[in-house]
Specification:
Main location: cytoplasm
EC number: 2.7.2.8
Radius of gyration: 18 Å
Subcellular location: Cytoplasm
Function: Catalyzes the ATP-dependent phosphorylation of N-acetyl-L-glutamate.
CATH architecture: 3-Layer(aba) Sandwich
Order of helices and strands: EHHEHEEHEEEHEEEHEEHHEHE
Pathway: Amino-acid biosynthesis; L-arginine biosynthesis; N(2)-acetyl-L-ornithine from L-glutamate: step 2/4
């Protein structure tokens, strides 16, 4: 099974998204797609007079912002992705973590920053795997928006990378799972200015060395830390690569950055 997370820059590019969905639909076997949609949510927020508030790359989600991200992620984007996949013969079902209680979470609680209605996932052990397995048996492809719920009636804005890794770990208890992060780069780059400087294989030792050298930094660090944690929890492999190469990545060919223990 492939759990695939699509990056926001691809979602925002109609031509790239169109090609990605065609390629995604053609992938054989059970698969799951996870998406966010932050840029579109920010644009709509501004149109509604709600100024986006970001701290350390995370969206502060007050009640008004929660309404916007729920509309954009769970409605506008999610249902359009489902419709476009149906047109490509991929029988899909749009979901959030609240549906069928698939992904319980809790409101983030930090002393120094109030993130509002931002959710941290409880545990992969709490994921409703029997429900997801039943979808796979029926040939249905779940399309997850980056939303969870707290069990108290509140939706929660949750990091899409985290949702993807949580689902991958949970499903690895029943399936052999590859977790794939697709975005606009060919993989993890040794030189951010050189698109072809892809690091094709990362293990803990060379990852630590590259971090120490400053070759890998900033936004890529949490994604990679998440990737190694997923591997330690039972995921078979994690691959980071270009959305245009999703078919070859899913087929196990040597493209992008493969992360192993």
């Amino acid at each position: 099974m492939s759990v695939i997370k699509i990056g926001g820059n691809v979602l925002d590019n109609p031509a790239q998204l169109d090609q990605f969905l065609t390629d995604f639909a053609a992938i054989k076997g059970p698969k799951v797609l996870v998406h966010g949609g932050g840029k579109i949510a920010s644009e709509l927020s501004k149109q509604l007079g709600i100024e986006p508030n970001m701290v350390n790359g995370r969206r502060i989600t007050d009640a008004d912002t929660l309404r916007v991200v729920t509309m954009v992620y769970g409605g506008l984007l999610n249902k359009n992705l489902v419709a476009q996949l149906q047109a490509r013969g991929c029988n899909s079902l749009g979901l959030t973590g609240a549906d069928a209680n698939v992904i319980p979470a809790h409101k983030r609680s930090l002393k120094d920053i109030d993130y509002g209605f931002v959710g941290d996932v409880e545990s992969p052990d709490q994921v409703n795997v029997p429900f997801l397995a039943s979808l796979a048996e029926q040939g249905l492809t779940p399309i997850f928006a980056a939303l969870t719920h707290d069990g108290q009636g509140n939706m929660l804005n949750t990091n899409a990378d985290t949702i993807a890794s949580t689902l991958a770990v949970a499903l690895s208890r029943q399936f052999e799972v590859n977790l794939i992060y697709c975005f606009e780069k060919k993989g993890v780059l040794l030189d951010v200015e050189d698109e072809n400087s892809v690091i094709h294989h990362l293990q803990p030792d060379n990852y630590a060395q590259l971090k120490e050298q400053g070759a890998i930094f900033a936004g890529m660090l949490p994604k990679l830390d998440n990737a190694f944690a997923a591997l330690q929890a039972g995921v078979k492999a994690v691959i980071i690569g270009h959305a245009a190469e999703i078919q070859t990545i899913a087929a196990g060919e040597k493209v992008g950055t493969k992360i192993t223990l």
